[in-house]
Inverse folding.
């Protein structure tokens, strides 16, 4: 492998992410980042003109999130959010969505909401689609089903507009999973639509499990984890059990997988397995931020 070629290091990290060797993936992407930032300095051009910079720090942020290192992840997604996209403006949503999505995942909805609302009136339909979807996720978490449905409708409308200008269909493939995920969660959360929600959730899980690219694979991991959490919140034990097993199939090494397996074992009265899996989760999150550990392990 070429140790000074940033892209070769980054591509190696792609595979490391999915083999459980996240420490080495982080090392490779940090080295990539260092090479690229030095290049911008010596060559005298801004990082916003290098598409690969945003891609690399996005994956690095996902790896930090994987390990519960939220403050480090946040610094990178904030940089991504604040970086202008002078070319391929239609893909600006890729820069913008990571920061509010991370905040929502960490239950920092009050910080995420203004960003999400701002995206709903952004220049490109892709940003608008993501913005409405993020607003809908926050509304759903607060039990506001009807407002969440309106946000979903607005997101789908913006997605339709984005598709008009998407001749390659690449943009649509990036955007479509987000409103589909929101739609499934809304239906699942409504007792009157639960059967429909279960069907949609299972379809979404099948699609998520089929992701293989580094960005969608990692995003699918956190979405599968969210489904497990929502299933428990709704007291849907069968769904929680099945979804935990799917999460384990997607990534058995993820600390969040061990955390989910611990909860499932505890629910079944298997104290030994619950204790073992929780210990594995703690080991996997050994570098995690204190607030993250408090949020996960100190719940009453």
């Amino acid at each position: 492998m070429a140790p000074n070629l940033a892209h070769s290091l980054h591509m190696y990290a792609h595979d490391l992410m999915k083999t459980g060797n996240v420490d080495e993936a982080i090392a490779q992407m940090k080295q990539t980042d260092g090479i690229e930032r030095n290049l911008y300095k010596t060559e005298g051009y801004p990082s916003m003109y290098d598409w690969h910079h945003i891609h690399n720090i996005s994956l690095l942020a996902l790896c930090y999130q994987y390990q519960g290192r939220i403050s480090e992840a946040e610094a990178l997604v904030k940089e991504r959010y604040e970086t202008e996209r002078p070319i391929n403006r239609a893909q600006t949503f890729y820069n913008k969505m990571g920061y509010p999505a991370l905040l929502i995942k960490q239950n920092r909805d009050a910080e995420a909401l203004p960003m999400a609302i701002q995206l709903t009136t952004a220049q490109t339909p892709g940003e608008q689609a993501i913005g409405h979807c993020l607003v809908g996720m926050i509304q759903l978490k607060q039990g506001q089903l009807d407002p969440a449905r309106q946000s979903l409708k607005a997101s789908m409308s913006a997605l339709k507009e984005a598709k008009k200008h998407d001749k390659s269909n690449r943009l649509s493939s990036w955007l479509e999973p987000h409103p589909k995920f929101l739609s499934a969660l809304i239906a699942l959360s409504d007792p009157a639509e639960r059967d429909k929600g279960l069907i949609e959730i299972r379809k979404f899980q099948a699609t998520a499990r089929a992701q293989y690219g580094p960005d969608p694979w990692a995003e699918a991991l956190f979405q599968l984890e969210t489904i497990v959490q929502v299933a428990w919140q709704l007291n849907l034990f069968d769904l929680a059990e099945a979804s935990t097993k799917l999460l384990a199939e997607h990534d058995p090494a993820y600390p969040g997988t061990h955390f989910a397996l611990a909860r499932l074992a505890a629910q079944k009265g298997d104290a030994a397995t619950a204790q073992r899996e929780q210990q594995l989760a703690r080991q996997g999150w050994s570098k995690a931020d204190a607030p993250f550990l408090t949020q996960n392990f100190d719940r009453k």
Q: What stands out?
A: The CA atoms of residues 258 and 280 lie 6 Å apart. The radius of gyration is 19 Å. The first helix runs from residue 6 to 17.
